[in-house]
Structure prediction request, 602 residues.
Amino acid sequence: MLNLPPYPTVLKPYGRAFVELARQRDEILCLSGDLTRQTEIDLFQEEFPERFIHAGMAEANMISMAGALARRGFIPFVHTFGVFATRRPLDQIVNCVAYPNLPVRIVGFMPGVSSPGGPSHQAIDDVALMRALPNMTVVDVADATEIRQAVVAIADVPGPVYLRLKRGEIPIIFDRHHEFSLAHAHVVHDGDDVVIFASGMMLSSAMSAAQSLEDVGVSVGVVNVPVIKPLDRATIIETATRARAVVTAENHSIIGGLGSAVAEVLAEEGLARRLRRVGLADTFAEGAQSAAWLFKKYGLSTQDVVDAAWRVLERPGEAPRAPTVATPPGEYAPV
Amino acid sequence: MDSHRMKELERAADLLRLRAVRMVAPHGFGYLGQALSSAELMAVTFAEAFRPGIDELVVSPGHYIIVAYAAGPELGLLSEESLTSYGHDGSALEAIGTESSPVVDITGGSLGQGLSSAVGLALAAQLRHDTTRRVFALLSDGELEEGQVWEAAMFAAHRGLGNLVVLLDANDSQVDGPVSTITTLEPIAQKWESFGWAAYDVDGHDVAALSIAMADALEQTRPAIVIARTSTSHGLACLPEGADGHFIKISGDLIDAAVAELENRRA
Prediction:
């Protein structure tokens, strides 16, 4: 069963889960790169001011310091927007965190084109950058239920983790019985014509697209892949083997992220399945007042997922139209 | 400082130089200039300030790791014979420091990051209310061109990290030539002072001056920097005029002359 949009939303699920974790674990530190409220850690600052560290607008220093703190038994969680968490201090992440394999948690908000703040604020390459680093775990979760569980799950990963989070109102897609796993991708829906692998904000688009396709008789598998590294190859191989074609959907460049990771698995396994990657097609994203406009302009809408599946299956005629979902205030639906 | 102590420290500095010459000799070239310039600074630090097992050492420019290896035997952290593996395939003693490098707590080859690492260690001690542990960070003047150094300097002063001492080897040398011909770092001491640090600007080959500066730096309740004015050819008169201080070539007779000069002075 596909749980379809619109979804109810919550505010600050990460911030709350993080405080809850810090109540149990004295070694957890919270570092902020001058985006405290925006990254939901005002909650931590209020409750644990002695473990809250203002690093200021100095991401290079923040990351290198976090590495040293981790060497001395702390578990530093570093917070800023995704662009400033990855692109800007990349060399510091490589040399002070990834190479020494230290338990620093880099939490980057505002993934992909979810921000109309222009290319400077759009993390369209963060997954690619982090995935290329040895020792790094890369997580891009879909909803508030997964966020709450992911915070706990990543606490004890021995090496570094990049956690990519949507900012603001966070949809609740999964109920409390849902289990987030660092080891296993999650088959949301079985289907054997086409399988859609989706991460983060594109999962709801994939689910909605799957429904539109199922309505016209296409059998669609949907796999939620919140952990892009280490990738659950077995589930990808198993579900892709059953299907005739594959679509990936990510709020990120199609180069270097989920789409590339899935392509690598298919090629290495000799699985001859046609692949379409939905995501930013090797472009920066300009000209927005709203994120929704960007998702449409750059081909990350539900309709784009539907079209990709339709084309990759070489179906004749027009692809079905994805429904336009009304989103009352406080609720969330993908574009 | 009495003359006996001075002589001891100078001999310790020359021992670092001698070991560095022997480490680079089989290769014919290497980061010898870094050891020649920082020998007194590190000899005084190890003899008068750094407490193995208590304090922490960051060598920010990994090229300087040679001087930490050279001090390893006296610190009880490295055997003298293991120094012969320096820079060879399969050795843990890589010429540019790595995670496997002995003697130091943190080093790295991508410059400008070590002060932030040292600040992180000092902050860890502060968060644990550990008032015993001190953190020493060796930096080079060329590194001051990296903006991250100044991010770290601001942060350290803001947090009042009095347990942090920077050892700055101001040898006016970087890959493209004298630092002063490439960018203007001066006034170095005033820059650090204006950032809230205690700064000591001294002749980096004068063990007495270094010792006095170090003693004062250790007393500070704010972070401190000892700016050691040095030369990459100091202590080896046999080196040819105009040798490239960043990456010295030394082979054949020159090695014998260097070893003889240092052994004679230490005798």
